[in-house]
Amino acid sequence: xxxxxxxxxxxxxxxIGTLRSLARKNALAILFASGTTLVFGWFSVxxxxxxxxxxxxxxxxx
Length: 62
Known about the structure:
Elements: H1 2-24, H2 27-53
């Protein structure tokens, strides 16, 4: 669950960066910040879905 939290925090910070670079009209920053938002947003959503589905959670060995 910690991985989802980290990915979500990175996504939020990247989204803020995208909005700031849109306000400053910086094309390269818009490209990198929006790419980061899309990639880490996708990772956070897919990781959360995997955890809800029962995958991705380590099971202790017996």
